[in-house]
Design goal:
Blueprint: E1 10-16, H1 22-33, E2 38-40, E3 49-56, H2 63-67, E4 71-79, E5 81-83, E6 92-95, H3 103-110, E7 115-119, E8 128-129, E9 132-133, H4 134-139, E10 149-162, E11 165-172, H5 178-189, E12 193-203, E13 206-207, E14 212-213, H6 214-219, H7 222-227, H8 232-235
Parallel strand pairs: 1-14, 3-12
Antiparallel strand pairs: 1-3, 2-3, 4-11, 4-12, 5-6, 7-10, 8-9, 10-11, 12-13
Length: about 240
């Protein structure tokens, strides 16, 4: 008598579309692969796009290792507008005039955010305080006391300036809220700012150029998807297995 079919196992690189939560992507893949044991390594906000590392089957056991890897992003900051979520999905809280800043002036301000530091997590985040996600308290208009978190920004480069916006490339450690960096930079410049766009381009050696879109995955057969799975032994050190 034949036993149950062998469950898929491996790491799948997905290019998350805008306006999808990381959980939305997992739910879509659970339906496509007809499996429940699927997770992800490193949340992306709904407005963000780019690399989402999906863990299929027993590969979920290496989640903590993959979450801990450094991340790379490309994005856009809009100066002069402050939102409650610190990004483009939030409600406008304040507008201020944007001075005629040069790229050199913005780059000089950015240098203050490089290196090791403690960052205060935003209220609109999934961090739980006494079992309650911060974003639920924020929606009630409540401000909850929270502890700053250690992060490191290895590089933050301005790549294009077209006031009131500028594009950037960023490399940082896990747990870094890029929208908070944008907000805090706006405060430092005196005109306020929010994160207008964000795309995760890489997590350590994994690059978004290797990733599949949800539409591509939907059009593929299960054997085709299985061929795209990266074996955990090829992705993480043996000590993490």
């Amino acid at each position: 008598m034949l036993g149950p079919p062998k469950e898929m196992e491996g790491i799948l690189l997905v290019d998350k579309p805008r306006d999808h939560t990381s959980h939305d992507v997992v739910a879509r893949l659970r339906g496509k692969l007809k499996m429940k044991r699927i997770g992800h390594a490193g949340t992306l906000d709904p407005m963000a796009t780019g690399l989402l590392i999906i863990l299929v089957g027993k590969a979920t056991r290496v989640s903590q290792y993959l979450i801990s890897l450094d991340k790379e992003y490309e994005g856009t900051v809009e100066l002069g507008k402050v939102t409650d979520t610190q990004d483009a999905d939030g409600e406008m809280m304040e507008t201020r005039p944007v001075p005629p800043l040069t790229g050199a002036e913005i780059a000089a301000a950015i240098t203050g955010f490089l290196g090791d530091q403690y960052q205060m997590p935003p209220m609109y985040s999934a961090i739980k305080i006494k079992g309650v996600p911060l974003y639920k308290s924020a929606r009630k208009g409540e401000e909850v006391e929270r502890e700053p978190r250690f992060i490191r920004v290895m590089s933050w480069d301005l790549t294009r300036l077209a006031l009131p916006r500028f594009d950037f490339r960023l490399r940082c450690t896990k747990g870094t809220y890029v929208r908070t960096l944008a907000h805090d930079l706006g405060q430092k410049l005196g005109c306020g700012a929010h994160l207008a766009a964000l795309r995760r381009t890489a997590t350590d050696k994994f690059n978004v150029s290797q990733a599949l879109t949800l539409d591509q995955l939907q059009a593929m057969t299960l054997p085709e998807i299985e061929k795209r799975l990266i074996a955990p032994r090829d992705a993480v050190p043996s000590i993490a297995l």
